[in-house]
Amino acid sequence: MPGKGAGRRRTDARPPRPAGPLSPAARARRSLLRGLPVLPSVVLLLLFLAGPIAYCVYYAFTDMRLTGASGARFVGFDNFTKAFGDPDFFNAVWLTLVFTVVSSIIGQNTLGLGLAALLQKASRGVRSVASTLVLAAWVIPEVVAAYLLYVFFRKEGELNSILSFLHLPQQNWLYTLPILAVSVANVWRGTAFSMLVYSAALKEIPQEITEAAEVDGAGRWHRLWHITLPMIRRSIGTNLMLNTLQTLSVFGLIFVMTRGGPGNKSQTLPLYMYEQAFQNSLIGYGTAVALMLLVVGALFSVLYLRLLRTEV
């Protein structure tokens, strides 16, 4: 038989006191403990990212060369002054912007969104075949893709064979329109990434919203402009930022197809930097160009991050 006070509740239990404000030392200790899991990542970033950037910043202000006297002498802003006085540098900046806008911001972005929208309505079989064909261009190595496009655009290549079959005028595309040829090559190779990003974004749009707009009489373009694009704005900003940064640094594709030529008609900043640093042995000057390319990428990143912070 249970004891007399077995079922009696304890009335002397006191509720726990609310915790008071932490002392500065306790807050610092708590912040330190919370930051320990990310400490290895921070160390790796400082070692492999911040370290090389600091190294480049230092050598951008020196006259370091691959040949001649060893060592590097501090020359201040001479490398940057030389760049802004060189017409070839401004030509490389202009071609870099053209290559980035045509192949990335317009080409890959627009084509990727269009393919994602079309595949969303296609059957499973068509979607599998089309996705495989688009992804194949993305997964093959850059050098292989560049050689395939070189064979396609050269004077005796497949493009001129198709034009000849259609009785259309032919030309040496890598000589007459080299920046357009490498831009098309970059679109062909990089569209798959945009397609994957937009495919995932379009699947997140509630079907009820588009169906309601369709019932209200909204046309296809009206739904695209007023519903689809605003709802995937963050995906658009993320895709533009990643594609732009990748396109700014494209080197192997252009080098294999045209080597920046003929002359300097397809010489973007990465190829101009390579020529100055390793062909002309001007490591300091080439590093200064690389630093300016880094600044251009940072400006694009700031622009897209502002877009990402905009609420839909």
From TrEMBL:
InterPro entries, sorted: MetI-like, MetI-like_sf
Record membrane topology: Multi-pass membrane protein
Domain ABC transmembrane type-1 positions: 94-304
SUPFAM superfamilies: MetI-like
Major location category of this protein: membrane
UniProt GO cellular component terms: plasma membrane
Location of this chain's protein in the cell: Cell membrane
Protein name, UniProt field: Sugar ABC transporter permease
Record organism: Streptomyces sporangiiformans
